[in-house]
Amino acid sequence: MNGTAYALMNWAHVLVMGYWIGSDLVINQLAHYTARSRGMPGAERARLWRFLMDVDQHPRNALILSLPIGLTLAAWLGLSPVTGPWLWLAWALSALWFWQMWLVHLKGATPSGARLRAWDWRIRYLVIVACVIAGVGSMVAGFPFATGWLGLKVLLFGGVIACGLGIRHYIVKYLAIWPRAVDGTATDDDELALRRTMREATWVLVLLHVLVLAIGLLGVLKPF
């Protein structure tokens, strides 16, 4: 590893973080707009939601990309045991997860889409558990990562993924009402529930962004 390679990878790490938060903000505004667009024709409202789901792939891209990039930076700093072939394996597994995540999106309305979605949830639960174990172990015993601040970053990354699953919970609630909103049979209570669900999901998104920013700050300050 040379200084130029490290600088480029570090730049990519920051770029992915900005890409993540920026796309999240756009999605959140679009989501609130769909929840408040009762006067819009149903077909147009449904088309807007499909567009929103396409845009929602961007933060999913960023989440998965940030994992191998972060592991690479940690390895190059001598703070991670994930080096050499293990680091290549981390990139390969991340690429497979990236591919699987896109299959979920592209095949979402098919029977195989439901199975792929279930596997995506399982993968995220597994990564959360791995982040908690690795993060706490590093903060307490200095393993697998050599510094406490990096351990905390890993732990917070698990929290970020958990927030993403929390947002999905609200999307499920939203979509339970959404067909009535599209076909024009939604009641006033239904429309209020759509707006309330988006407000609640937004608070989870705020927490997600706080965690992402804290991860970035720890990487800059390296306080302990």
Features:
224 residues; mainly alpha; 7 helices; 85% helix
Question: Can you put this structure into words, describing what you see?
Answer:
With 224 residues, the protein is mostly helical. The protein has one domain. The protein is 85% helix and 0% strand. It has 7 helices and no strands. The protein is elongated, with a radius of gyration of 19 Å. The mean pLDDT is 95.
Layout of SSEs?
Elements: H1 3-35, H2 42-55, H3 57-76, H4 84-106, H5 111-141, H6 148-183, H7 188-221
Helix pairs in contact: 1-2, 1-3, 1-7, 3-4, 4-5, 5-6, 6-7
Gist?
The chain is mainly alpha-helical and 224 residues long. The chain is 85% helix and 0% strand.
**Major β-sheet annotation:** none
Morphology: elongated
Going by helix content, strand content and strand pairing, the class is: mainly alpha
Could you estimate the helical fraction of the residues in percent?
over 70%
Give start-end ranges of low-pLDDT stretches. none
Number of strands: 0
Strand content: under 5%
Number of domains: 1
